[in-house]
Each structure stands twice: as C-alpha cells, then as structure tokens.
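seq:
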Amino acid sequence: MQDSPGPGRPRSEASRHAILSTALRAARRDGYESLTMDRIAAEAGVGKQTIYRWWRSKAEVTLDALRELADEQIERVDTGRLAGDLEAFLAQTFATSRTHPGLDRVLCALMGEAQRDPAFATLWREQLIEPRRQALQALLERARKRGELARSTDIALLLDVMFGTMWYRMLTGIGAVDDDLARELGALVARAAAPGRGVSAPRPARPARPARPRGSPPRGGRTSRG
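struct:
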C-alpha cells in the first residue's frame, strides 16, 4: 500500500498526521483494546512499515496523538488571579474529553498500559503527564510571584490534588469531570494555598537517636553511687 500525501504537504508529515488522527479516532470509536497496527495502517492509507518507522506499538502511536491533541486544545491562560487561572486551565483540560467522545476511556486504557509496561510508563510520564503538570505548575509559580501563594506552599502536593481528583473520577466513574469541578477545585486550591493558610512542604524528619543500652548512664548525667 502506498502513502498518499495531501497537496502541499511533505509525504512523511502527511503520513504521520494521517496515522495519528486515525489511531485516536479509531480508539475513541471502537475502544483502545480493539486497536491494532493493521487497522491503523488500513484506515490511514499507509503501509504498516511506515507506522513502525516512527512508533514501536499502538500504545506509542496513541500517546503521540494524545500529546498533540493536548497541545492544540489547552491554551495558556492568565486571568490575573490564581482561582481564575486554575479554573480556566482545568476547564480546558476537562472539556477536551467532552468534545472528543470516548477520549476518557482511551486515557484510562493508556494509564493501565503504563502499569503493565515499564518502558511505556516512562514515555507516558515524559510525554503527557509531566508536560501537563509543568503547565499547571507555571500558573502556581506565577501566583506565588503575585503574592497569592505562601512561600512555603508545597506546589507538588497541590498538583497531586488537582490531577489526582481528575484521574480518580475518570478511573472510577464517581463524580463528573466538568466545569463545576474545575471551578470548585480552582477555588479550593487557591484558598488552601493563600498566605497564612499555605499548604507547606513537610519538614525533614529529625534523625532518631540511637537507643541507649540498658544499664548505661543517662546522656549528660552521672551514675549514682550507693
């Protein structure tokens, strides 16, 4: 089967675009489990060898498609206040699943894939999880410069709260992932991180003193004489 680039587009870029859009569309429509490299090649109109030139598995193809979708759908936001920034960012993130039916099931399937395959888990974190965390972290760091966050605020914990809530609801089906959640989470985190109420990073634990052998004199003291 021959690759068929569109007019004005280089052959390799046209094939890559067709593969990514086909993989994500088929995974959303029929379920990630039913996706195969053969199906992607057939629907995209490319040879299977073309897919393997860039990706080693259907998981990697789908991940790349998700990464590009996130880059396209989620824009930089600056409302001038932390609660508004968080609400806008989370609302855009959550809306992507609503405007692309079946996307949440694909995300959950890839999360499961990452638990089974350590090599894919590394790509999953590097290409999708960490970039989204870094984008949200930038909003929190900007709010800290504006004085909206306590200096001691544990930003990593706040990221865990927001993304952890999203993943919990997606994986369990308990609760909606929608604009209401975006607004409530944004307000909750902004309140919790405000100066005077900051979620502080835990202090390092003090090293434990070694146990004193039985019968030895107390530290700094003397043995009593009879």
